[in-house]
Amino acid sequence: MKKTILVTGGAGFIGSNFIPYFLRSNPEYHIINLDKLTYAGNLQNLTEVEGNPSYLFVQGDICDRPLIEKIFHDFDIQGVIHFAAESHVDNSISGPGEFIRTNVNGTFTLLDVARINWKGRNHRFHHISTDEVYGTLGETGLFTETTPYAPNSPYSASKASSDMIVRAYHHTYGMNVVTTNCSNNYGPKQHNEKLIPTIIRKALAGEKIPVYGDGKNIRDWLYVEDHCTGIDLVFHKGQSGETYNIGGRNEKVNIDIVKEICSIIDENRPRADKKPYSDQIAFVTDRPGHDKRYAIDAAKIENDLGWKARENFESGIKKTVEWYLKLHTN
Ligand SMILES: NC(=O)c1ccc[n+]([C@@H]2O[C@H](COP(=O)([O-])OP(=O)(O)OC[C@H]3O[C@@H](n4cnc5c(N)ncnc54)[C@H](O)[C@@H]3O)[C@@H](O)[C@H]2O)c1
Fold it and tell me: Is 132 a catalytic residue?
């Protein structure tokens, strides 16, 4: 008998990389993917698991309690891996309400239904979160699991709130929970609105490539498949009640990423006039409250669970850009 787990938000960027990976690596599981299919969800990203008997897609909202109860009633759910979220910081600035609804109320609804259904059983709830809950760093230092939370955007505040509810369900009800806080993911299947797909799309369209502020913000980049291996490991081997930071030890200044991507496109798809795509870079007004620097100390997951990021940034970004270029073939 296969073990059934509920994955939420599996049609999004990370979830749609995770599901095929997880089914390949763990054939003993059956996955139910619950996704509302907001603008960020795309079933085209899951064609490789379509028709797989170990996979079932359910369209629905994580805030819809009767639906979550029905899923737990109809299936013997033996674990939850919770990706579903509103995830784009800019959208959280223009419309924070949906972030509070999905990220806070939705996480609460899932946890609470799991708690009631799992009484007396030790099934695991794995919450996927972000390094943005820790706020911003100065020029030095790294986020560890004990860094105090200091979220600065409505997005990170909603994720921090959900992390706290998960924590409370462990301490109050003894639920078997783990939380992973990861850095910026990159790789195939990311929505058009995010940084890397935007750079490529604008470059190829001959438009200005927008870079916030002075372009000096620093992010720590994690190849999405490395994130998937980290989640797999923590889901199976992490200690209940613990949090684990997952990061690729790839700190990059935003403007350098943009230039690197431009030069990969220069090689693969040169401009008709042979000028570099970096000529299209245009600095635009900074995002309000834009955090300066994020960087993760991944020592805990590396030392306690033996995880290591396999992809180096140079090869990872090349693979990623080439993947998006194929989408823009015609
Ligand atoms: N992408 C990153 O770099 C990154 C970094 C750190 C943490 N995270 C976290 O990882 C998780 C996945 O991120 P992502 O980049 O794949 O996000 P995404 O925006 O690409 O995908 C989110 C998915 O959740 C679904 N969804 C949204 N609201 C829903 C709801 N109410 N009910 C059911 N489904 C809903 C969407 O349809 C979409 O398929 C999120 O929790 C995010 O906070 C992402």
Answer: yes
Q: Is 264 exposed, middle or buried (0-12, 13-18, 19+ CB in 10 A)?
A: buried
d(CA 49, CA 258): 33
Residue with tokens 């509920």: 6
CA of 301 to the centre of ligand 1 (A): 22
271: exposed, middle or buried (C-beta count within 10 Å: 0-12, 13-18, 19+)?
A: middle
**Token pair for 70:** 């029905």
Please check whether residue 61 is in contact with residue 70, taking contact to mean a CB–CB distance below 8 angstroms: no
- Is the pLDDT at 1 greater than 90? The verdict is no
Q: Is 131 a catalytic residue?
A: yes
Q: Is 155 a catalytic residue?
A: yes
Rounded distance, CA 305 to CA 230, Å?
Answer: 9
Distances in Å between the alpha carbon of 225 and those of 21, 26, 81, 179, 312?
Answer: 8, 15, 16, 18, 12
Q: Which of 35, 86, 131, 226 is catalytic?
A: 131
**What one-letter code names the amino acid at 4?**
T
Answering whether pTM is above 0.90, one says yes
Domains of the chain, each with CATH number or no CATH: 3-186+222-248+292-310 (3.40.50.720)
* β-strands 218-223, 251-253 pairing: antiparallel
Check residue 241 and give left, alpha or beta (phi > 0: left; psi -120 to 50: alpha): left
Return the percentage of the chain with pLDDT > 90, whole number.
Answer: 94
Lining ligand 1 with CB less than 6 A are 8-9, 11-15, 35-38, 40-41, 61-63, 83-87, 102, 106, 128, 130, 159, 182, 184-185, 191
> In terms of C-beta density within 10 A (0-12 exposed, 13-18 middle, 19 or more buried), how is residue 73 classed?
exposed
Which pLDDT tens digit goes with each residue over 28-83? 999 999 999 999 999 999 999 999 999 999 999 999 999 999 999 999 999 999 99
